[in-house]
Write a structure and sequence with these properties.
Length: 138
């Protein structure tokens, strides 16, 4: 069995940002040489997500509005966690959007459904953060 591990680094200019990381994950898959197996992609921080959805700007704006309704960034004072930080909303947004995705690898390709793309969801950016890619198989 082959095993491959890589970290992707991000430092977004905005507090919140969605980035399509499918091309980077596909590069890792090629590098791994795995043809049949499983690919795990997870955020290594508790204020960022990895999730699968459509790469469509309208939907991305809808996510932003929806998440701000559920867990508004401001006022910071509304959250107990913000006694020492200002990112309580980012923890909540991350939990809603998820920590990781797992994608099947078939014939050396990510075995996606229609329109599926992998995103890094940053909710407390402007600093260096990581995503882990782990690929196992043959
Ligand atoms: Zn925090």
């Amino acid at each position: 069995m082959k095993s491959f591990r890589k970290e992707l680094w991000f430092n977004t200019p905005n507090r919140r940002q969605l980035i399509n990381i499918t091309p980077q994950v596909e590069e890792c898959l090629v590098e791994s040489g795995v043809k049949e197996g499983i690919c795990l992609v997870n955020a290594m921080h508790i204020t960022a997500s990895v999730f699968i959805n459509d790469d469509e700007i309208g939907l991305h704006n809808d996510f932003e509005k929806w998440l701000e309704k559920l867990a508004p960034e401001k006022p910071y004072s509304q959250y107990q966690h913000n006694r020492f930080e200002d990112n309580a909303d980012a923890h909540l947004k991350r939990t809603i959007m998820g920590r990781e995705v797992v994608v099947a690898i078939t014939n050396g390709r990510l075995d996606f459904g229609p329109w599926e793309q992998i995103f890094y969801g940053e909710f407390d950016g402007k600093r260096k953060k990581r995503v882990l890619i782990k690929i196992i198989g043959e």
